[in-house]
Amino acid sequence: MTFADKYGPWALVAGASEGVGAAFAAELAARGLNVVLLARRQHALDEVADAVESRSNAQTRTLVVDLSEGSAAEKIAAATADLDIGLLVYCAGSDTEIVPFLDNELSSAEGMLQRNCLAPMQLTHHFGRSMVERGRGGIMLLSSGAAFVGAPSMAVYGATKAFDVIFMEGLWSELRDHGVDALGVVLGTTDTPALRRVRQSRGLAGPDEPVRGATSPQEVVTAALDDLGKTPTCMAGRQIRWGSRILSPIPRRLQVRLMAFMSRREMGDGHDT
């Protein structure tokens, strides 16, 4: 079965306006998938769509949706009702504020919870059921090294990214026998336009200055697609792979397998109470 047969004919990339999301869109189109591009800025989506269509035979569709709004998943489901979505790639969810929890408005934290946890959970439930019915498909949810240990000024961000990792690892165990691949993609420092803007705003770098030593968006995409269907968690880049081994010498795939074994031994197959 080809990549397009397994994960096509359409992919939905949330957070596709630049950086890792745009790189995913380009690579998936090159592999034969049509791509729904989703973000908040129409002009940026149009640029990505034009680039994708000029370099491939893929069709594109753009959706302008704010994923921090409670109705986001419902809007996306309605806008893609006529499409066969075989791959969901959720790249949205970076934190550009990076301030202590109590110094920020609670609404900011609530929006992040919606964008990083509720929206991807809702979209996974919606598209995942169709994938299981067809017996094929994939779901990738991007996380961060901030998920491993709590850090100042990233309390909520790190907590939501921890949710993303555990959510995908659990689904990997649940869905793999149904032909659907779930993958949590953990990013370290990645040289994205968003990170460059944050560094510039804090006086750490000049305009559009590359982030030294950081992983490139294309490296993230390559690592994620290489691991899709093989493991529950991808450490996308040399830096994050090194860091994760220091924090936990036991590979996460083995941890997930052990947890699945213990869960089935104690609770049955997951359908019994």
TrEMBL record:
InterPro entries: NAD(P)-bd_dom_sf (IPR036291), SDR_fam (IPR002347), VLCFA-Steroid_DH (IPR051019). Coiled coil: none annotated. It comes from the Bacteria. The keyword Ribonucleoprotein does not apply. Signal peptide: none annotated. Belongs to the short-chain dehydrogenases/reductases (SDR) family. This is Short-chain dehydrogenase.
